[in-house]
Specification:
By secondary structure, the protein is mainly β. The chain is about 0% helix and about 60% strand. Strands 2, 4, 5, 6, 9, 10 and 11 form a 7-stranded mixed beta sheet that branches. It has a 4-stranded antiparallel beta sheet with strand order 1-3-8-7, with no helix packed on it. Strand 5 and strand 6 form a beta hairpin.
């Protein structure tokens, strides 16, 4: 079973930067794509950015020029570099991966537990 471990959240002032990391662990699987989503109270979880193992990226319009997603395939780890943070970026950020199970011979999706990012002065 694949598990995701997130790190890097915290409190930052507006205009500051944070870097989130998410590592996938387990055995007998191959990552198809990884990504980040975020959620605030009372709202649906929304896409922030995704990346495939081939390097294809997708960003929400609200973060496109400020956030950068990257992946280290050898470490099965995805990163989200967040620059020029705004108070409206405050949310719980969730890591997600779509992976192929060699044993089950199909794709699965799994979520991390979330990490809180607070942008406030």
């Amino acid at each position: 079973q694949v598990q995701l471990v997130e790190s890097g959240g915290g409190l930052v002032q507006p205009g500051g930067s944070l870097r989130l990391s998410c590592a996938a662990s387990g055995s007998g699987f191959r990552i198809n794509a990884m990504g980040w989503y975020r959620q605030t109270p009372g709202k649906q979880r929304e896409l922030v950015a995704t990346i495939t193992t081939g390097g294809d990226k997708n960003y929400a319009d609200s973060v496109k020029v400020r956030f950068t997603i990257s992946i280290d395939n050898s470490k099965k780890t995805v990163y989200l570099q967040m620059d020029r943070l705004k108070p409206e970026d405050t949310a719980v950020y969730y890591c997600n991966t779509n992976y192929y199970s060699d044993r089950a011979r199909r794709n699965f999706e799994v979520w991390g537990q979330g990490t809180l990012v607070t942008v406030s002065s």
